[in-house]
Amino acid sequence: MALLFPQAEAEFNKVAGAIKNASNVAVLAHIKPDADAIGSACALVRGLRQIGIEASAYIGQPFPHANNLRSIPGVDEVIYGEALPADGLIVTVDCASVDRTGCYQSELMAQQERVIVLDHHRSNDGFGARNLIIDSESTTTIIRELFTYLGVELDAELAYCLYSGLVTDTGNFRWGSPRMHTLAGELLEFGLNPRNISLQLSDEMTADDLRLMGSALASLESRQVDDLTVSFMCIDEAAMQAMSQTAVEAVIDYARVLVGSDVGVVLKQFHSERWGISLRSTKVDVSVVASALGGGGHRPAAGYSAQGTKEQVQDRLLAALHDAYVAE
User: Fold this and answer.
1) What residue ranges carry the coiled-coil annotation (predicted)?
2) Sequence-ordered list of residues with C-beta below 8 angstroms from that of 233, at least 6 positions apart, any chain
């Protein structure tokens, strides 16, 4: 297949060269991993082992992945919260900022010379000695390109890992460039069943999930800031503890498609005054807004963490949206 990122050939060569010279590689995905994080980590580990490099995947949290990720090959080998190897490289995948590495953050900051960052979030400022950050459909897209430079040969399990990140981060191919279809076509040649993969990763929900989703959707309220209509939906703490990750992501998808709304916001309550905020927009660059509030992401989709009451969190977001909107 032709190169997906021909403009970055020099950068890929440098990263591939560093990895080939490593004694071993710790592949580090972000906390609260999604399919792109798990798919990227598991694919890279499998690919490196194929070419004779010792590698393992790590996530800096003490609890496991969401149940919807169970079908991704290699997910059961991911190591949670244990010590990283004392030598070799640390390659982060899909970590938009160093705090997304969880309990490994201090270690990475203290040993930056060991760190390579592979990521597709445009808001990523780069926290490694080498940073390969390309605004693209998914981090698995970048991993696929890296395999070309490493000499890794695709197989069915690698294709599944790569496709998992691609299909979920493009919303089942609803947004992205023609590149996503080029890559999907290559991966499907390995006998993947796209319908089953989408069901396993994004579509399977319980009756309880649907009831809790209904409550979240019913919480919809809209507020104005300048000429923007901002629509808020809230998933309270009890619902967050009971809902599957698939159901939470489905609510976030609804925030993207609200007719008459310029910015969709989902407030996810983890504790009484601790929140995760997901932003979606086709009008405002929400990555700028999220970055101003300590997070990051892409132009149409971003997120951040916040403290305070629901009203305080909403007011701070509206103020940041005003600043971003006026700046544009």
Assistant:
1) none
2) 216, 217, 219, 220, 251, 254, 255, 264, 265, 266, 267
